[in-house]
Write a structure and sequence with these properties.
4 copies of one chain form a homotetramer. By secondary structure, chain A is α/β, with parallel strands linked by helices. Chain A contains 11 helices and 14 strands.
Chain lengths: 341, 341, 341, 341
């Protein structure tokens, strides 16, 4: 809250009341009186003004509008930390010159399939294995994931291939079992504002990949990152995975402009998930390339050896040979923007 | 999944494969061969086909499109239960002829303020007291609620006024403490697809008010209700509270057409929250009236004795005299649609 | 443009430059220097600052943000005219205590059908006859309307029933033929920002019904009204007809909160079109009632004697007996909000 | 319309009625009777079924749903024309291997500035000069363009630099004056469904760049292209320029996934406008690169020698040196996707 606007009907008393309220919070008022409006510039550390305090000014007599200029996130902001955050996971950097690709099935189905996929994506150059053991599904009747069994298969695939793993958490009560196995904890789009879960992973020392909510603004997303950072976990990466719009030709609308916007606002690494962003296999490759060109620090892509038998999202999973071709095609694009894959 | 469309490039083999897949699931194929497309009508109980099975058909060779006609929710559907569900809470019916109004502050702040509000809204005709003890806040630096202390104040206000209470749950780990005090459990918009939380409240015998997610379709919302119903808790009510659109003149866009749409699709009671829907005090009354005219079964409205000092959402809270006036104005509208308040 | 915010990297020179730019436009700067930002309150008649001037300040060195508080519309604003505009069409007031209902088919198809519908809606209490002679259709292969022939049928139906007529204009070249017949000119949603068409109807003395664009903010809508008003035609009414969102259960999302928002911002009458807003016959009646409860000044509703044979929008047209019943049901709701139908 | 679904309450008579309706249109019905629903597959050339006929089936007794599988556009479809359309403008191909860049100011302001910009962008490698002489502005009080004077300046800049020009048409009455000067006619986003204007440019032999409407689906956009094609003008290119979403960090949300979606659905060239898509200078370069990586056939970019003094959109215009750098950076990305700039 940096500017308070009072309408023409505001009285001298209203203005005095606002000034006093500000002073009570250690802030000063700079008053510009116009013919139609009075504008109060707030001087001092306005970043400490909480939402509810801002609301209370908004609700005061005579106030027409309260404008916030200072961003409400701090630890996540570029101002707080000028240089890019680079997160190291088992020796692999996320946020550096190299663009790591995370790949694997949507859901872990069984050991054989998972290991098969892990070996294929590793051979193609992926640096992380993705796979869900706890699956958030729209329907209570759909496959909900293998749970700890799935986590064990992921760990075994890691042993075989050397690929660190990333898997999703849905419930704060699963923290122990998930951190026992995983290298990166994923917070899914539907849990971006599950604040208790954010606080929980904030106390962990595992890196966190925070997906953008389906209708979350970039600012809300950074506030959710702030929840995690404020608990002491500084290894947060942000993952754009498509937002909800009126367009139905794609599953979601992948908002690639979020990548350069985030690079300005925050020091945290930015990951792009083209698979969920578009929801159709044929569109994944062009959008993966576009993501790299737009400045993404990492990609996360769904790959399945037999998409037709995948228990989730088969329609958007690449086959291993398609993934292999994509990895080759991404290299010159990465080079063109001064990066490598 | 009721119709499978194959494109002109689909082979005989592709069609045989689909037919076999269907038969393997106890379903029959009815094939219509056109010049450009082959349409397979699926005969049998398609409601049992899960999402992932549907995806697997979508991913099969030659398939262009899979169309679902049968709704994916069952227990929540009108077909499952023709008559309206009426939920009784301490003798007050929700979903019947009378339209109960739930009112109170956004957050419980202290005992004196809460009791003051409770007495005012009770005098004005509210039948439930609302108030948050656990508050989902965009910022980690904002007031997060009083926790159990807030629940105790709610229970004390219930004792004084006789009003049953409704309060929000954010975390499955809070089930015990919340059900110890509350009469209705509220699931907030940001947790509409917090599936673990849905399953948890599904095992409770307390009625649940399920708010619509900010960008949730009506079908997804009913699927979330299905999560709760599928665990055995049949006392679910749905609360429209505004969706996210491009319009910035209001906090959200209150989708009142969801009311008649839901009355067709489901037997569950429909509640409307005009306070969050619009986010501005002056707009609450007209939208509350419109909600009743559209067929809402109940309303939930924010009221505060001193909105300027409210710790949350002061900008959208009615003052007691405004609430009192609104309650009087709602009566003839309720009567006009064959209801009463 | 009322506030200019400069970031911490702005120099003294940058500030002097802004001050000079303002003074060159007859405005004064009121500077509040904070530690992180400098806020310049602009004193003077900022409503004269055009968009491009505002952009030029935004593009100046050191500027982080330009905030507009004063609304960019003038003639359309409540400040310009405190009392409600009441438009009189052949003796019928729009914007007064009585809520006139405009009814009729989506498109004029032939004389017999149109006259039949006109007689039915007149008997049910409609005060205007609607019907399109020039139809904006998504497909070039769809029925595009009867043109002048359709206008003649409308005029003949007016003679028989006494109902004034309203019909849509799509092209400035049709002004003469349309104004020769119609009583109210309708601008459709797709033409809300067809600025040349707005200027053209602005020179007419016929009242104009301006529909909201599918993704137009309320402010843009009022700016389009301003186009018409600025040319001298003061008889403009605004028609909410649904906006485009992610929800697919309804054709559009009828934004009824636009009604009270508009009643605050402007003196112009507000009409609601529930037929296009929802797109399904069964949902029209509850939303028409909700519109009246929310404060609408008039309704426009599609009615057809044989919806199955309608050449446009049959799926959302009421049958005459349904319309008759709705008219009866609207009366007590209008009475409940101090109006009549 | 390819599938008609009847609900459980549909009678034998209802089914017979539908079958007869289909037969009356030269189509055959293939009936699949299930326990809960009857599905009618429509056999024959369903692409000839118009919207209003489809609506009439939807409105028939017993019908629950009508599903269209066949795309409603024909001339614009990949099925109609397998190979890419390549449009030649003064010897420069659009839609071929080379990716031409169109650059210039938003609005033509005066001869000196325009010529200066034209020379700069030409030197940097742009192949077309853009500039608006007729400007669609939200406000009637904003600069509306120089009209024919602006067109003359464009023609003069073309003479000096050799760059063909592209400029926007807003009104069918301007066809003569605009086609007298321009090489490519631009239809702006707000006029994408100005159907009379589409028909008008459809009769021209000038190539047309058709921008996507702010809330238009890809299908509606192709239907608008179909309007132009159906009149005989086959030189249509589609320009993605951002859609309207809830996100406010960017002016619009540039939907780059539209590029690969369009490449599948249509043979027409796809242009991307990153300037309007993001609305902020700093974000233009990354999104231009992403557009090329996603498969765009051409780019259109705003450039101004003095953005602060631009009369429109200064905030999103690149300076000549920024544009020059971008052109160099685009080359390796184009090469990486098998194209050149």
């Amino acid at each position: 809250m940096d500017i308070i606007v009072l309408g023409s009907e505001a009285t001298e008393e209203d203005i005095r009341h606002i000034v006093k309220k500000l002073e009570g919070r250690g802030l000063k008022a700079h008053i510009s009186t116009g013919t139609e409006r009075t504008i109060i510039g707030v001087i001092g550390d306005t970043s400490k003004v909480t939402e509810e305090e801002e609301d209370s000014f908004r609700a005061a007599s005579g106030v027409e509008n309260v404008v916030r200029i200072v961003k409400p996130f701090k630890l996540a902001s570029r101002e707080f930390r000028k240089e890019d955050t680079v997160i190291s996971v088992r020796g692999i950097a996320i946020g550096g010159r190299r663009i790591p690709v995370m790949a694997g099935p949507c859901a872990v189905e069984n050991k054989t399939i998972l290991t098969g996929i892990a070996e294929k994506v590793s051979a193609a150059g992926a640096l992380f294995l993705r796979g869900g053991a706890f699956k958030p599904r729209t329907s209570p009747y759909a496959f909900q994931g293998l749970g700890e069994e799935g986590l064990r298969y992921l760990a075994e695939a890691r042993e075989k291939t050397g690929l660190p793993i990333i898997t999703e958490i849905m419930d704060p009560r699963d923290m122990d079992v998930i951190t026992k196995y995983t290298d990166i904890i994923q917070i899914g789009a539907r849990n971006m504002q599950n604040f208790r879960l954010l606080l929980e992973v904030g106390t962990s020392d595992k890196p966190v990949l925070l997906k953008r909510g389906l209708s979350s603004t970039i600012q809300e997303w950074l506030m959710s990152a702030e929840y995690i950072l404020s608990r002491g976990n500084h290894n947060v990466m942000l993952c754009e995975r498509g937002i909800r719009t009126f367009e139905t030709a794609t599953r979601n609308t992948l908002d690639l402009s979020a990548v350069p916007v985030l690079k300005q606002l925050t020091h945290l690494p930015v990951v792009v998930d083209p698979s969920h962003g578009v929801g159709k296999r044929d569109l994944v490759a062009p959008m993966a390339k576009a993501a790299v060109a737009a400045g993404a620090d990492a990609l996360i892509i769904e790959v399945h050896t037999n998409p037709e038998e995948a228990m989730s999202d088969g329609d958007q999973s690449l086959k291993p040979d398609q993934f292999d071709r994509l990895m080759k095609e991404l290299k010159p694009i990465a080079a063109a923007v001064g990066r490598e894959i």
